[in-house]
Write a structure and sequence with these properties.
It contains 11 helices and 3 strands; from the N terminus they run ααααβββααααααα. It has helices spanning about 1-25, 60-70, 80-90, 95-100, 135-145, 165-175, 185-195, 200-210, 215-220, 225-245, 250-260, and strands at about 110, 115-120, 125-130. The protein has a 3-stranded antiparallel sheet with strand order 1-2-3. The protein is globular and about 65 Å long.
């Protein structure tokens, strides 16, 4: 019964979005070449079945992060490529997995030490942004057996591995080590919290993770890639990871306290 309601809710959600789009296009004077003659959304008043939704608010503790990064590549059934892809996501500040995986080797600039990511999130939008690459990130890239292929994180050398492969890898890790379940979204959230602990300010955190900055000046005038700020922020984050992954994890606690409680 729960699955049936979940499917129904997904169907209504997709149709709600479709009707909203049709209404906006129909009433947009600049887009009169596309008229759907839709005046209202017939499914707008049908409530979402929230009881079947999963909340996404898990964030890994420092101990969990350390264990995960040290054991994901030792997990049964997880390929070397998948394990290194997930660790790479951690090392570059929790970028969106789909956007990272679909970038070819051409997007990696070893001279500037950056990864150029194309963000196509949202209907019709497309934006490129630079992500700084640290020594730790380059160590992952250099260890990949795909240097002469099209994509870094690829099993066949022709296409990138799928996000679902990474999700299954996380699930296998949680099952093998009896860890509370988490998702790729939780990894992104965890990286944000680690950056907070590392002393990276809010604006730089948002720049690193490509969150839209609010305000008229950002929306209309700020076209800078902010690479210098992101490089400084990523360096702080990387130093924190270095401490976190050290053998004595107790060193991390005083570091966090000194940052958050000067």
């Amino acid at each position: 019964m729960g699955i049936s309601y979940l499917i129904l809710d997904a169907f209504l959600l997709s149709n709600r979005a479709a009707f909203n789009h049709a209404v906006k296009i129909t009433n947009d004077p600049l887009k009169q070449d596309k008229i759907f003659n839709v005046q209202l959304n017939p499914v707008v008043n049908i409530p979402k079945q929230t009881q079947f939704e999963n909340t996404q608010d898990r964030s890994l503790s420092i101990e969990e992060v350390k264990h995960f990064l040290k054991h994901i590549d030792k997990t049964k059934g997880v390929s070397v490529i998948a394990a290194r892809a997930i660790k790479f996501l951690f090392y570059i500040g929790g970028q969106r997995p789909l956007q990272v995986l679909r970038e070819s080797w051409d997007s990696y600039d070893y001279r500037r030490k950056t990864l150029l990511i194309t963000d196509t999130k949202g209907r019709g939008s497309k934006r490129e942004y630079l992500t700084p690459l640290t020594v730790r990130a380059f160590a992952i890239l250099d260890s990949l057996p795909t240097q002469d292929k099209s994509y870094p994180f690829s099993s066949d050398g022709k296409t990138s591995i799928r996000v679902e492969t990474l999700l299954k890898a996380v699930q296998k890790y949680c099952k093998q080590y009896k860890v509370e379940k988490f998702t790729l979204r939780d990894i992104r959230r965890t990286c944000k919290n680690l950056m907070i602990d590392a002393g990276v300010n809010r604006e730089t955190r948002n720049l690193i993770q490509n969150h839209g900055l609010t305000g008229v000046d950002f929306k209309h005038y700020d076209k800078h890639d902010h690479l210098p700020e992101k490089v400084v922020g990523m360096a702080k984050y990387d130093r924190f990871l270095e401490t976190l992954l050290s053998d004595n994890i107790s060193n991390v606690v005083p570091l966090v306290m000194s940052i958050n409680h000067p």
